[in-house]
Specification:
5 strands; five-stranded parallel beta sheet; single chain; globular
């Protein structure tokens, strides 16, 4: 099923920060001959400021409003793999926005793998001062029901290569 023809709908990758959404979305888009965008990057480009600065200057609710509006704009597109910000599934209306013209793939990951992926990062405003496995596990557990309610497909990513994750997504999309 390599090199499928252009997929008419969008594929939204959701999951906790550090789950591999950015890396997997780029690889998946290349394999499926689709465009690839990141909601966080679209917001940074639109606002002309970093996510950290948006959080600091305007607060998280304002950021989440921009995130929802970005999903609404993405409904106009098809054939795009969208790497979503880690908190995007926390708003039920965002689930509706994604499902209008897309399939939602949850990249599920362990707290330990998340920590390994992001421990050197300084651009995770939600984890400021809490860069540790117990806090990550607690936040993941709070978000898990939202991720699971939004996802059409779930792929466990621990101990898998990007290629293996893409193979599984493509197989499950059928």
């Amino acid at each position: 099923m390599e090199n499928m023809n252009h997929v008419p709908y969008n594929i939204f990758l959701i999951g906790f920060m550090g789950a591999g959404k950015t890396t997997v979305s780029a690889s998946l888009a290349k394999r499926l001959n689709m465009d690839c965008v990141e909601t966080d990057q679209l917001i940074v480009d639109k606002m002309k400021m970093s996510i950290n600065d948006i959080f600091a200057q305007y607060g998280e609710p304002y950021f989440r409003d921009i995130e929802s509006n970005t999903l609404i704009e993405l409904q106009q597109r098809g054939g795009t793999v969208v790497s979503c910000g880690g908190g995007i599934a926390m708003r039920p209306e965002n689930s509706k926005h994604m499902k209008k013209n897309g399939r939602v793939v949850l990249l599920a990951v362990s707290p330990e793998a998340v920590y390994d992926h992001i421990k050197g990062s300084t651009d995770r405003p939600v984890l400021k001062g809490h860069m540790n496995i117990p806090y990550i596990a607690e936040l993941m557990e709070k978000r898990r029901p939202y991720y699971e309610a939004t996802a059409d497909i779930t792929v466990l990513t621990d101990q898998k290569t990007v290629s293996e994750i893409c193979d599984e997504i493509i197989a499950k999309l059928g």
